[in-house]
Structures are given as structure tokens and as C-alpha cells.
Design goal:
Length: 115
Amino acid sequence: FKFSPCCNEMISIIARVRRCLSVKNVHKDLLRDHRFPGEVASLTRQCQWWFTQVPETYAMTEYAMGICRVKCYMPKRVLGWEAYTVMSVMDGSPCGNETACYNGVCKKKIIVKRQ
């Protein structure tokens, strides 16, 4: 697998705002989770991760922006008026029955088997 452009963008954003990522604190007892990020993070949670300084943001799911994209609500205090920002969803986010988004495309759901 490779990271999607969306994942690369989110990694660079988080790396800039999260100073803890530059601290070396290796642990050997890591939890092994074989799921994609979008399988465990709701669309609202994804909006909250992207906009950490806007705790009142949420996914406007009733206003779909196309497959593998989501509208994140922006309150009046951010821009001076109520608005939304369109974001790509994380890999593994559902986009239909037995389908999920990978690299920005809705495909048959991938099941990663534990080794």
C-alpha cells in the first residue's frame, strides 16, 4: 500500500501542529490494529482531527460532497460567517454497501488479514 494524497496532507498538517511527534519515545508493546483509519474514525471525528482549533466542527453528512469527500462545518467565529470546508476522507471510510474509499476512490472494501 501507499499513502493517499489526503493521508500525506493530513500527516504533514498533524506533524506541524503536534510537537509530541518530534519526541523520541519508542515503545515495543504496540497495539497492532489492522484496520484503515476511516474504519475507526467517524466523519465528524475526521473533521475534528483536521481542524483541532475548531472543536465545534462536525461532518455535514446530509449535504454530501461526492464520494470520498465530506463537508466539515465551520462556525461563524472562524471566518466571520457560517461556512463549510470540503475535505477528502481517510482511507477506509465507507462510501456504500461493502465499499470504502482508498486513495480518494470508492472501491470494494479491502479486508487486511492478520499475519
